[in-house]
């Protein structure tokens, strides 16, 4: 979710917990209730065996509205190696952790208001997804793609076949900007070959939230925009900003080489150069706790993810014996991040190469629509660089139209208090062409669905209902 530029923030975590007793079945399924998550709807947890020694954990919530007919959204948190329970319990799930991590409370602005939702811990080894040996850990996008395809096949045939015909959307955050394009491209290419192994369902859209699609060096160019020319332009003195400006052309050249070659060595070199030239000064402030890589105006209180003080602590909550017992685990060490997976992706080169080609394939060769949502105050996956990437570095059939369109304000109905009418409120800016919609979110950082719950919920609702054009009305 956070990219290798921030690996030092993650810290080492145990490799493998102690999974619950192994069974022969291809999947497990457990109903849950309000004692573990005050969701206001039916909910289930379970696992799907996707290979030898690999079992992926999921948490499924029925829509609060019309489960039989509402769409289904599958969510993946990034990392690589991040648990999707981070989004479920601190961002936009139907229940959120209390500040003291003792319980949960009902979230009025969860996406389950209008959709069935499954949060998936992947790749194998992330969160509650079990691995029986170090060899079973997934350290790359290729094996992750195979496991994801296997999961979908089993989930929609053996676990919840009644949802196989519902509209299906795949969403994710940060490094999911790599997961989703690679996994979806893998599936769609299998379909193009008429492979019997391909997930046969129709993917209506992908939704990318503060998602790193291009190389990290390409994203680094936005550090200059935000820290030297943006509202916080006084963070560094003019001399330092001039040195950053002088480095940008070389950073862009190396990012282009990375993008053109997909060569892991070139991409790693580009990332190293841009990190030294554009990130170093800000990183020093992050190390001191003064700044936050995920939000322009916050310090870092809860390391390593710099969550707000009131977000609750997933490690505390999900390592409680009673909670683990309800999920079917015993003496398992749960962590929202797995640094060993990060290292595996780095060593295999998949952490540094981009996903631009895969995005081009999706936009040109499939009928899958793409929604991009980005917090305006995100640093790690910053808005200035993201705008350049989608305007210039993902070639596709409607690129010229998209690039020449202007951003316009979008609005949502904000509820203030319980007894007053909602106020039509500016949520950010947007532009779109057929196939691609880009939405910026005001006053939101890397976890935009958490920072602006009601605003982002309104975007998602209109998107899955095919009414995204109403954002600007």
Can you walk through the features of this model?
By secondary structure, this protein is of the alpha/beta class. The protein folds into 2 domains: 4-215 and 309-472, Alpha/Beta hydrolase fold, catalytic domain (Rossmann fold, 3-Layer(aba) Sandwich); 216-287, Helix Hairpins, CATH 1.10.287. The chain has helices spanning 7-10, 85-90, 141-159, 176-192, 216-229, 238-261, 264-287, 314-318, 321-327, 339-348, 356-365, 383-393, 399-404, 448-451, 453-464, and strands at residues 27-32, 43-51, 54-61, 72-76, 95-97, 104-106, 116-121, 130-131, 168-173, 203-209, 369-375, 408-414, 423-433, 436-441. A hairpin with an 8-residue loop joins strand 12 (408-414) and strand 13 (423-433). The chain is globular and about 60 Å long. 54% of the residues are buried.
Distance between the termini: 33 Å
Structural class: alpha/beta
* CATH topology title of the largest domain: Rossmann fold
In percent, how helical is the residue content? 25-40%
Which radius of gyration do the C-alpha atoms yield?
A: 21 Å
Portion in strands:
15-25%
Q: What is the overall shape?
A: globular
* Overall average pLDDT: 91
Total domain modules: 2
Number of helices: 15
Low-pLDDT windows of residues: 1-24
Number of strands: 14
CATH architecture of the largest domain: 3-Layer(aba) Sandwich
**CATH H-tier superfamily of the largest domain:** Alpha/Beta hydrolase fold, catalytic domain
Helix/strand order, N-terminal first: HEEEEHEEEEHEHEHHHHHHHEHHEEEHH
The first-level CATH class name of the largest domain: Alpha Beta
Largest sheet: 12 strands, mixed
GO molecular function: serine-type carboxypeptidase activity
EC number: 3.4.16.-
GO biological process, one term: proteolysis
Protein name: Carboxypeptidase
